[in-house]
Amino acid sequence: MLDECLEGLAIDPKGIYVDGTLGNGGHAAAILERLEDGGMLIGFDRDVDAIERVKGRLKAGAGKRVELVHDNYANMAAQLDRLGVDRVHGLLLDLGVSSFQLDVAERGFSFQQDAPIDMRMDQTRGQTAGDLVNTASEQELADIIYRYGEERASRRIARAIIEARAKVRIETTAQLAGIVERAKGGRKGKKIHPATQTFQALRMAVNDELASIGQVLEQMVGRVTGGGRIVVLTFHSLEDRLVKHFFNRHIPREESLQQGGVRRIYEEPQVEWIWKKPLKASKEEQSINPRSRSAKLRAVEVGA
Ligand SMILES: C[S@@+](CC[C@H](N)C(=O)[O-])C[C@H]1O[C@@H](n2cnc3c(N)ncnc32)[C@H](O)[C@@H]1O
């Protein structure tokens, strides 16, 4: 949904733009292309491999300032302070994992390839999904799998994990996928692998993904200049709900007063939705890129 993201950002060629999720650098490169001298792109990724891969390509454009930051976007305000940037003209967040992260077996995100269960976006810190699977209580595992995976068989899966790890440590993605598949009674001709939701849930828990989204929005809504934009591409209903509720608090609504009349209430700064409903990927894009089937794009303009 590159074109739609760019439309949402409505780029000012001399503006300062933050791509909070560099990934493979596709969106960042497109933003950079639209900037003129005087414009600036600041890119974040908590995955150091992502930064290393896109650095050469993004920094090659002369005349425009490019800053790449290896950090969680939950620390965006402090990083902008460090760079001496007070306000920005736009922020883009394209949430979740990159195709690169999914494709590299050793990152342990995917059950398509057998590897140690890691799933950390930032490999330099934090516990791996393998640590989580082998140490969390049955109740914790069930809660994670139910909440982030929206998986109905969460209790059965958590029980099966506990039973399996009592015999031998669960080391690899194939081992875990097998445990989940058996707990759910096999594939039964389903197109989607039975472990999909469990893997997604563990990834979201290990990377504390929802908390980071809340933090970056809180920090940045007040740092976007009047008329600037925030664009967020989500892939999970919990992410989308969080984004929607966050911005709805900043949209003025009228409340009737007892003594008559109305008053407008909202949290500062005021924002306005760019599209009434979230945009979805076109049928064409969905057929080329299956991941885009669950994508929802929302954008707001921040009031002056
Ligand atoms: C879907 S990809 C982005 C793809 C990118 N828009 C492109 O054009 O290639 C998401 C990226 O965001 C990064 N990411 C996810 N959560 C993050 C966070 N809290 N802080 C920083 N980077 C994060 C991931 O490491 C991943 O590289």
Labels describing this entry:
304 residues; alpha/beta; Rossmann fold; DNA polymerase, domain 1; seven-stranded mixed β-sheet; binds S-adenosylmethionine
Explain this structure.
The chain is 41% helix and 17% strand. The chain is an alpha/beta fold and 304 residues long. The chain binds S-adenosylmethionine. S-adenosylmethionine (SAM) binds at residues 21, 23-27, 44-47, 50, 72-74, 94, 96-98, 121, 212. The site of S-adenosylmethionine has 20 residues, from helix 2 and strand 2.
At a glance:
The chain has 304 residues and is of the alpha/beta class. The chain is 41% helix and 17% strand. α7 packs across α10 and α8 packs across α9.
Per-chain topology:
Elements: H1 2-9, E1 16-19, H2 26-33, E2 40-45, H3 48-59, E3 65-70, H4 76-83, E4 88-94, H5 99-103, H6 129-135, H7 138-149, H8 154-167, H9 173-183, H10 196-206, H11 209-220, E5 224-234, H12 237-248, E6 253-256, E7 262-265, E8 271-273, H13 283-288, E9 296-302
Parallel strand pairs: 1-2, 1-4, 2-3, 4-5
Antiparallel strand pairs: 5-9, 6-7, 8-9
The structure holds S-adenosylmethionine.
